[in-house]
Design brief:
Strand content: 5-15%
Number of strands: 11
Order of helices and strands: HHHHHHHEHEHEHEHEEEHHEHHEHEHE
Largest sheet: 5 strands, parallel
Number of helices: 17
Structural class: alpha/beta
Length: 403
Amino acid sequence: MSVSAQTNTTDLLHDLLATRILILDGAMGTMIMRQKFQEADFRGSRFADHKIALRGCNDLLCLTQPQVVEQASAFKTQVLGLIDGGADILFPETAIDTLNMKACLFAIEQAFDERGVRLPVMISMTVADLSRRSVSGHGPESFWISVQHAGALSVGLNCALGPKEMRPLIEELAGVAPIFVSAHPNAGLPDPLLPTGFPETPESFAPQLREWAANGWLNIVGGCCGTTPEHIHLISQAVKEFTPRALPKVPQYTRLAGQEPLVIRPDSNFTMVGERTNVTGSKKFARLVLSNDFEAAGIVAREQVAGGANILDINMDEALLDGELAMTKFVNQVSADPDVARIPFMIDSSKWSVIEAGLKCVAGKPVVNSISLKEGEEKFLEQARLVRRYGAAVVVMAFDEVG
């Protein structure tokens, strides 16, 4: 926010506080408690046989009662408030879960449409630990592929790690993202035995970021947990002599992502799509899904990946199935299995509502199979825009209302 805009906002707040009592927001937990959920509601079908009581474990409701959590929270309301409040830039950061970030980016686009404005958006991911992956299993390249549809001003890394641990990650991101790159690491890994709680002093921290600038990896730099004004001052002094990172020219290839990136180049080998997780292509899989045995159905998916599938096709178009529910349950099931989730998914259905149910669950960059002009140009364009907003690639079938 500019100085003048900040001053105007401060003056407005002072004026309002002098004339009336201002109102703060309420509690999301209370909204959930008003539903008066019983033990069975917390368990749902997923935890029906759990050994201990689950009533009151509100975190589980994201899985067993997601529609209630959506109504009580997530992102669009926050974005609308920031837009109306005069924000100059939106910066969803510290994203430990790529699906959560994609949901935020979707809400941002909804808010932009509703307000008829667009603001610059900066994005920053956080890895979970020294595995150098997010909670959803993504490294820098697969994270970037999963969010590149947003048209952001910058993408970066922050929190969780100090500069020593973050160094290879920022180097990787700087090489694959054709937009500006940001970094604001912690002052090292937390250490409760230290007076400050973090090991990196301003004098040890700034030279490491100076090297990143000298290597041409940075456009935006700062500090996260444990850093102080002294850290930031020395960073600014350390990087001021270097030119910002030049944006790389990244070839226009098909780029998909599970937990691992899949880049299809002209010299790539044959790309294999595993079709046995399609109820119309496998009697065994259909039987397992119809009997609600999603754990065994997940084993079918694992076998497809072990057999060499590069992409996993998921289709629930069976007359006796609730396609949306089955798609949601199965995508969530296999997304939690790193042996399966490492490859991109293909969300396959003749029903748009089933495709959309799947897209809401995919953390990486999937493929939609398919859309066409069979319902006319207006419906085709609407679906194409949503496919992009969900961050997916798409198969377009070459037929229209006529054939």
